[in-house]
Amino acid sequence: MFIQTSEGDSASSSVLLDAGPDVWQQFERWGLAPRVDRVVISHHHDDHVLGLRDLCIMSRKHARVLPVHCGPVTEARIRATFAGLLRDGREQIAFVPWHAGAVVEAGGVRVEGFETHHRGADEPTTAFLIHAEREGRGVRIAYATDMGTELPAPRERLELSLIHISEPTRR
């Protein structure tokens, strides 16, 4: 999920929640040419982190360091996966600790992590509670991926819940 806010005529701020392997193709498909200010990763699986490669290349091109918020196991896996890209002396990622209860702000949007469970992840998975102001009132959206069938956030206080339920692949 990509969140971009505008502040005045030209300033904007953005957060990308998870970076799947096709994140750049998704931006192109929707006609977006975004500047990603920070990324928050829910857990270390490939379908949530492999897009960091393209984002690192774009950050290098613009001489920027990309803050990536994630848990310690996810950070270790990202460092191992992108070892060559991250070891060339020009670090494109600044890792920031992320956990349930952690908060990131982008303009007037606040993203808070809450813990969920995903079979096969060796650290807690975080889902996202997004708080925003729209037309003078608060909007709360829960965004959770790969977590099973129940959303452990108070549904009655949400405007919208975006849930991706995945089942194990059967062979």
Overall description:
- Strands 1-2-3-4-5 form a five-stranded mixed beta sheet.
- The longest helix has 10 residues, at 52-61.
- By secondary structure, it is an alpha/beta fold.
- It has helices at residues 23-29, 46-49, 52-61, 72-81, 83-86; strands at residues 2-7, 11-17, 39-40, 66-70, 93-97, 103-106, 109-116, 125-134, 137-145, 160-164.
- The chain is globular.
Distance between the termini: 30 Å
Strand order within the widest beta sheet: 1-2-3-4-5
- Global geometry: globular
Q: Count of helical segments?
A: 5
Residue share in helix: 10-25%
**What is the beta-strand fraction?**
35-45%
Low-confidence stretches: 159-171
List the helices and strands and how they pair.
Elements: E1 2-7, E2 11-17, H1 23-29, E3 39-40, H2 46-49, H3 52-61, E4 66-70, H4 72-81, H5 83-86, E5 93-97, E6 103-106, E7 109-116, E8 125-134, E9 137-145, E10 160-164
Parallel strand pairs: 2-3, 3-4, 4-5, 9-10
Antiparallel strand pairs: 1-2, 6-7, 7-8, 8-9
Question: Which characteristics define this entry?
Answer:
171 residues, alpha/beta, five-stranded mixed sheet, 36% strand, globular, disordered C terminus
Task: Sum this structure up briefly.
The strands form two sheets. Strands 1-2-3-4-5 form a five-stranded mixed β-sheet. Residues 159-171 have low confidence and may be disordered. The protein starts with a strand and ends in a 7-residue tail after the last strand.
